[in-house]
Amino acid sequence: MASPSILELSQSVATNTSIFHDYLTAEGLPLPSHEPSIPPPPLNLPSEIAAARDAAIQASYDLYELLIGPYGILLNGMFQNSRMLALEFIHTHKIGQSLGQNNVTTFKDIAKSSNLDEDDTRRMLRLAMTNRIFREPEPGVVAHSAASHVLATNPFVAAWAGVATKENWPAFQRTTEALTKWPGSQDPLKTAFSLAHNFTDLPFVEWEKDPPRAKQFSNAMKFLNAGAQPEMILSAIDYPFSTKNKVTFIDVGGSHGVAAIALAEKHPQLSCIVQDFPNVIQGADAQLPEHLRGRVKYMAHDFWTEQVVKGADIYFFRWIFHDWSDEYAIRILRQTVPALKEGARIIINDACIPPPGVLTTKQEMDLRTVDILMKVFTNAKECEAGDWHALFEKADSRFRFLGITTPPSARDSIIQAEWCPAAESGSVIS
Ligand SMILES: C[S@@+](CC[C@H](N)C(=O)[O-])C[C@H]1O[C@@H](n2cnc3c(N)ncnc32)[C@H](O)[C@@H]1O
After folding, report:
1. Which of 2, 59, 177, 414 has its CA 20 to 30 A from that of 296?
2. CATH number of this structure's domain 6-153, picked from the four choices 1.10.10.10, 1.20.1600.10, 3.90.226.10, 3.40.50.920
3. Averaged pLDDT, 376-380
4. Is the pTM of this model over 0.95?
5. What region holds the O-methyltransferase C-terminal domain (predicted)?
6. Cβ count near 424 (within 10 Å)
């Protein structure tokens, strides 16, 4: 099929943007803006409006790439890299953190308070401004944009910027070297991440020895969680909650228990235990809403060791398996097996990459970036449907694979299997 022409793409941008615009106007919501005082559109849009917005993003993205042409596409690599550099500079010097939404400062004052050269500061911030991070309302004066304001005031966004620029970015630069040195390795230590950070142990173990770094990662996860709309994904769990008086739910590697909390809010019969490293769960209890205390509990548990909570109804893993290569993901499942009662569920919340061309280029680029980030991190990957089937089959033939559900326009899927100890070999029903 021929690709759409630039005129068709521009019409798609116009049509779909109009749908999004008209919805916001009809609802009395502000139009998207770089002004820090104007709230961004809500995340929970009706599905047809979200689809129109996504179509406008995709068409404008495709149009842009046709307009800049092949040389522009190649050169873009360098220009996009410079955005990471500017973000790292701002994050390192905490620029803008004492600046209010309507206040202004100057390049001179920023440089002085951060012990930087004024000209260097001006040049770096003017680079960031081309990416809508800060703005210069008059020469020499610096004010917040919507993006710089959120970076300066939301500690979870700042933590994400720390992980992106200080943890991941240096590792990307060692990736070709790692892939050349250890082709196809499943070993989570033979990675670009260990090369870049001189790690001799797993990243999570290294961070556990360095509490501010562990905290930065768990806070970054909270930010990513906020954009991931966990309630929408979790609603795809096909489990007869309402027919049971009590359901025990173990959120393995659950961090602060975003998923457990969302599900406990929805299902009063749910009793949850969130397991993670001691440093990660420290203080999480105190942040629980009062009405969930007693129903959501935290427990230090290392998933490389045998699961200690026996006989639960559901063992849940959100964004866990994509951190590990097959060999290690199988080890996690096998450490769970001794705890499983007949009919127990393994429920995984992770991505399931469709074949090339099913998603829009922009959606596919986002997923494939995370896929490679997982390779860089621990030699792991984002799985395709067949990989999920195979994982359970290889881990233990007594798992019965129940299938994969992906809610419309969701980035993640729900992957489920059931424990059937009497089965000779697990059967696949979808
Ligand atoms: C990508 S995060 C996902 C966190 C959480 N499930 C969520 O959805 O936000 C991976 C989590 O696995 C935890 N983790 C890593 N290794 C672990 C281990 N050996 N035992 C328990 N938790 C571990 C990390 O501390 C981190 O919280």
Report:
1. 414
2. 1.10.10.10
3. 96
4. no
5. 196-395
6. 8
